[in-house]
Write a structure and sequence with these properties.
alpha/beta, Rossmann fold, five-stranded parallel β-sheet, 12 helices, about 20% strand, globular
Length: about 260
């Protein structure tokens, strides 16, 4: 349950004669609902402003669908990351409006009224290579569901620096930049030297043997000499998109 739903419930109780028993019944699922194999955190949207997100990898399609169904009883938004097509098929049986992104491997449901969505501009996602797109897409979809407008710029790795420099106006306009790169992971350092806003660096597991499944990129980003860079875990597009949306939601006066 998010703040908007809670306010509506209390207003119905106050103005429209909703009984105490009905209110108690609706609130009984807070702060969590025990499904046996999972304890669904319905209180998270009130605490943090966004509902619990399902990490689909390692869960059966039936488990993903059951958790999703429980969340959608209390929330208008659902996000599943690292989701398989089988998981999507199970979810869409219970939520026909669910959408699947084959590149990001995400499942999204957004049942809010169009008029209630107020997407704030400010996030730029830059991606070093086409092989990094799944992570970049995951970041973008996460941030967009959290009410941020996202501009996407792909295939601007440092092997062709002129491609990145051609995007300088977009880089300097952003309030926060997400830089996604595998191999040697140099892109965030270059971006960090060009902008005056936070840069969220995302190492990916793309690369040959000595990249060690993204460890080389991770260490490169952690050791960057450029300032204003924060680093998330390898392939963690979700974490980067979430953090970017939180930064972008801050009042303008805080960042400007």
């Amino acid at each position: 349950m998010d703040e908007s739903r809670l306010r509506t419930l209390l207003k119905d109780f106050k103005d429209n004669g909703l009984s105490e028993d009905e209110v108690i019944t609706r609130l009984r699922g807070l702060p969590f609902e025990d499904l046996g194999f999972a304890k669904v955190d319905h209180h998270r949207a009130i605490r943090q402003g966004f509902p619990e997100v399902i990490f689909g990898e390692g869960k059966t399609p039936e488990q993903v669908a059951s958790i999703g169904e429980a969340l959608l009883k209390q929330s208008d938004r659902l996000l599943v990351t690292r989701a398989s097509r089988d998981a999507y098929d199970a979810v869409v049986d219970k939520a026909p409006d669910a959408r699947y992104d084959d590149i990001a491997r995400t499942i999204v449901v957004d049942r809010r009224d169009v008029g209630s969505k107020k997407a704030a501009p400010g996030i730029l996602i830059v991606c070093a290579g086409t092989a990094d797109l799944p992570v970049a897409y995951e970041a973008a979809i996460t941030a967009e569901l959290m009410d941020s407008q996202v501009e996407r710029v792909f295939d601007v790795g440092v092997a062709g620096l002129h491609r990145l420099l051609a995007q300088l106006p977009a880089l300097q306009k952003a309030r926060v930049v997400v830089a996604v790169a595998g191999m040697e992971g140099a892109l965030p350092s270059v971006v960090g030297g060009l902008v005056q806003v936070p840069v969220i660096a995302v190492p990916t597991s793309v690369g040959y043997g000595a990249s060690f499944d993204g460890l080389a990129a991770l260490l490169s980003m952690l050791n960057s000499c450029a300032t204003g860079i924060g680093v998330v875990n390898i392939d963690n597009g979700f974490g980067a998109g979430y953090l970017a949306a939180l930064i972008n939601s801050l009042p303008t006066a805080v960042l400007d």
